[in-house]
Design a protein that fits this description.
111 residues, alpha+beta, three-stranded antiparallel sheet, 44% helix
Protein backbone atom coordinates (compact mmCIF):
# COMPACT_ATOMS: atom_id res chain seq x y z
CA UNK A 1 0.00 0.00 0.00
CA UNK A 2 2.71 2.47 0.95
CA UNK A 3 4.58 1.70 -2.26
CA UNK A 4 1.45 2.38 -4.34
CA UNK A 5 0.89 5.68 -2.52
CA UNK A 6 4.50 6.65 -3.19
CA UNK A 7 4.11 5.91 -6.90
CA UNK A 8 0.87 7.88 -7.15
CA UNK A 9 2.19 10.90 -5.28
CA UNK A 10 5.66 11.05 -6.83
CA UNK A 11 5.87 13.51 -9.74
CA UNK A 12 9.17 12.07 -10.92
CA UNK A 13 7.84 8.51 -10.98
CA UNK A 14 4.72 9.52 -12.90
CA UNK A 15 6.74 11.54 -15.39
CA UNK A 16 9.21 8.68 -15.94
CA UNK A 17 6.39 6.21 -16.59
CA UNK A 18 4.81 8.62 -19.09
CA UNK A 19 8.11 9.31 -20.90
CA UNK A 20 10.01 6.00 -20.92
CA UNK A 21 9.10 2.39 -21.46
CA UNK A 22 10.83 -0.91 -20.90
CA UNK A 23 12.56 -2.24 -23.99
CA UNK A 24 11.43 -5.38 -25.77
CA UNK A 25 12.99 -8.53 -24.33
CA UNK A 26 15.44 -9.08 -27.22
CA UNK A 27 16.97 -5.60 -26.83
CA UNK A 28 16.93 -5.27 -23.01
CA UNK A 29 20.64 -6.09 -22.81
CA UNK A 30 21.69 -3.40 -25.29
CA UNK A 31 19.11 -0.61 -24.89
CA UNK A 32 20.00 2.01 -22.31
CA UNK A 33 19.46 5.65 -21.46
CA UNK A 34 21.92 8.02 -19.84
CA UNK A 35 20.91 9.32 -16.42
CA UNK A 36 22.00 12.81 -17.49
CA UNK A 37 19.66 12.73 -20.53
CA UNK A 38 16.76 11.65 -18.30
CA UNK A 39 17.45 14.58 -15.97
CA UNK A 40 17.64 17.01 -18.91
CA UNK A 41 14.33 15.74 -20.31
CA UNK A 42 12.71 16.03 -16.88
CA UNK A 43 13.87 19.63 -16.49
CA UNK A 44 12.36 20.47 -19.89
CA UNK A 45 9.04 18.80 -19.05
CA UNK A 46 5.73 20.38 -18.09
CA UNK A 47 5.85 18.36 -14.87
CA UNK A 48 9.07 20.07 -13.77
CA UNK A 49 7.96 23.52 -14.90
CA UNK A 50 4.74 23.13 -12.88
CA UNK A 51 6.73 22.56 -9.67
CA UNK A 52 7.36 25.43 -7.28
CA UNK A 53 10.80 27.07 -7.39
CA UNK A 54 11.67 25.31 -4.14
CA UNK A 55 10.70 21.91 -5.57
CA UNK A 56 12.66 22.64 -8.76
CA UNK A 57 15.70 23.54 -6.68
CA UNK A 58 15.32 20.23 -4.80
CA UNK A 59 15.78 18.31 -8.05
CA UNK A 60 19.49 19.03 -8.42
CA UNK A 61 21.67 16.20 -9.71
CA UNK A 62 22.05 14.39 -6.36
CA UNK A 63 18.39 14.43 -5.31
CA UNK A 64 17.23 13.64 -8.84
CA UNK A 65 19.42 10.54 -8.95
CA UNK A 66 18.46 9.50 -5.38
CA UNK A 67 14.72 9.86 -6.03
CA UNK A 68 14.86 8.20 -9.44
CA UNK A 69 16.77 5.23 -8.06
CA UNK A 70 14.19 4.77 -5.30
CA UNK A 71 11.86 3.54 -8.03
CA UNK A 72 12.36 -0.22 -7.84
CA UNK A 73 12.44 -1.23 -11.51
CA UNK A 74 14.88 1.59 -12.26
CA UNK A 75 17.30 1.00 -9.39
CA UNK A 76 17.88 -2.63 -10.33
CA UNK A 77 18.76 -1.54 -13.89
CA UNK A 78 21.11 1.35 -13.00
CA UNK A 79 24.82 0.96 -13.63
CA UNK A 80 27.46 3.48 -12.57
CA UNK A 81 29.70 1.87 -15.17
CA UNK A 82 28.99 -0.93 -17.64
CA UNK A 83 30.73 -2.37 -20.68
CA UNK A 84 28.42 -3.14 -23.61
CA UNK A 85 29.90 -4.73 -26.74
CA UNK A 86 33.38 -3.57 -25.75
CA UNK A 87 32.43 0.06 -25.03
CA UNK A 88 32.38 1.43 -21.48
CA UNK A 89 29.36 3.55 -20.49
CA UNK A 90 28.81 5.51 -17.27
CA UNK A 91 25.63 6.34 -15.33
CA UNK A 92 23.14 4.44 -17.48
CA UNK A 93 19.79 2.76 -16.96
CA UNK A 94 19.55 -0.50 -18.89
CA UNK A 95 16.43 -1.89 -20.53
CA UNK A 96 14.54 1.37 -21.05
CA UNK A 97 13.89 3.55 -24.04
CA UNK A 98 12.11 6.79 -24.80
CA UNK A 99 8.47 6.19 -25.67
CA UNK A 100 7.69 6.80 -29.31
CA UNK A 101 4.55 8.88 -29.66
CA UNK A 102 2.01 7.41 -32.02
CA UNK A 103 2.01 9.26 -35.29
CA UNK A 104 -0.90 8.95 -37.69
CA UNK A 105 0.32 8.92 -41.26
CA UNK A 106 -2.08 9.82 -44.04
CA UNK A 107 -1.52 7.22 -46.78
CA UNK A 108 -3.91 8.96 -49.16
CA UNK A 109 -1.30 10.65 -51.36
CA UNK A 110 -3.11 10.05 -54.62
CA UNK A 111 -4.59 13.11 -56.30
Amino acid sequence: RANEYYKDSNDLYSWFQDTYEESESESKNTDFIYLKEVMTKFRESKTYLALSKQEQKYYGAQNFKKDLLEINNISKNFYAEKRIKGTKYRSIIMGFQLKVDSVIIDDDDSI
